[in-house]
């Protein structure tokens, strides 16, 4: 399985959720609504979930093993960090032109 596309939608509001991500697997299957969250130990991902009748949230889709979760998380967080750098570069460029 290969992650062939990662789309990051950054969240501008204050709070722990920093982005919502969609990934494409093997150019054939998309998983939407993966969340990038700021935790006590840094950024992590939360898989798409739904609130069950008992009030608990349960993942709708998730990796079966920790190796796959780690691989998905590292790819998503790398893309998230890259978009953060792109945004910082764009802001710096815009500020430089306004002078």
Care to describe what's here?
With 99 residues, the protein is α+β, with helices and mostly antiparallel strands. Helices cover 32% and strands 39% of the residues. It has one helix and six strands; from the N terminus they run E-E-E-E-E-E-H. The strands form two sheets. It has a four-stranded antiparallel β-sheet, covered by helices on one side. A two-stranded antiparallel ribbon has the order 5-6. The longest helix has 32 residues, at 66-97. The termini are far apart. 7% of the residues are buried.
Structure, briefly:
Keywords: Cell cycle, Cell division, Septation. The protein has a single domain, classed as Arylsulfatase, C-terminal domain. The protein has one helix and six strands, in the order ββββββα.
CATH domain fold name: Arylsulfatase, C-terminal domain
Helix count, DSSP H or I runs of 4 or more residues: 1
The largest sheet, given as strand count, sense and whether it forms a barrel, is:
4 strands, antiparallel
**CATH homology superfamily:** Stage V sporulation protein G
